[in-house]
């Protein structure tokens, strides 16, 4: 269930032509608001109370026992999903209709461990710069006391989506 409106959360991939027709900010807000499906990977971390402003994303989630690794703490992949998503969505929120992005690289630093007792964690993503071809961003995960649990940086490639996705035509050779 979606914590914001008590309706089941829909997961799926938004068709390219729908994404291409929207500004990045409208696209991200559509996902957060439930008018577009959540990406399937989010079933893993179940974010809630998500907000998007130009270049800034905030998501909340709760690590649980199902996120544990063999050594008895929350797996780093949980943090990686949250951080990569927050940075990517922050970049997406700055794009014009017809633009896309992909992650070229990201680096994570783990500061404190998470457990099922951590409670609600807050993930914040923020862009540093979004240019015509590249974008950089950062994200951090904070516990309920504002202590940093992990942080990351990324570089993304920004590109124009295929013309067929934005209503253009292609010519046959």
TrEMBL record:
Domain Thioesterase: 72-147
Keyword Hydrolase: yes
A GO-annotated cellular component: cytosol
Stored InterPro entries: HotDog_dom_sf, PAAI_dom, Thioestr_dom
CDD domains on file: PaaI_thioesterase (cd03443)
Lineage top rank: taxon: Bacteria
Entry keywords, A to Z: Hydrolase
GO molecular function annotation: 1,4-dihydroxy-2-naphthoyl-CoA thioesterase activity
Pfam families found in the cross-reference section: 4HBT (PF03061)
Name under which the protein is recorded: PaaI family thioesterase
Origin species: Rhodopseudomonas palustris
């Amino acid at each position: 269930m979606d914590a914001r409106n008590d309706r089941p959360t829909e997961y799926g991939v938004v068709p390219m032509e729908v994404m291409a027709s929207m500004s990045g900010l409208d696209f991200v807000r559509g996902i957060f608001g439930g008018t577009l499906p959540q990406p399937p990977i989010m079933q893993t971390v179940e974010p809630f109370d998500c907000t998007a402003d130009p270049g800034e994303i905030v998501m909340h989630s709760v690590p649980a026992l199902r996120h544990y690794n063999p050594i008895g703490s929350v797996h780093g992949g949980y943090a990686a999903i949250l951080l990569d998503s927050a940075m990517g969505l922050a970049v997406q929120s700055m794009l014009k209709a017809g633009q896309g992005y992909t992650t070229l690289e990201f680096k994570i630093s783990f500061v404190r461990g998470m457990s099922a007792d951590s409670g609600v964690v807050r993930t914040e993503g923020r862009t540093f710069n979004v240019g015509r071809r590249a974008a950089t961003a950062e994200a951090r995960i904070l516990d309920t006391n504002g202590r940093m649990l992990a942080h990351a940086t990324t570089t993304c490639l920004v590109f124009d989506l295929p013309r067929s996705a934005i209503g253009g035509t292609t010519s046959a050779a």
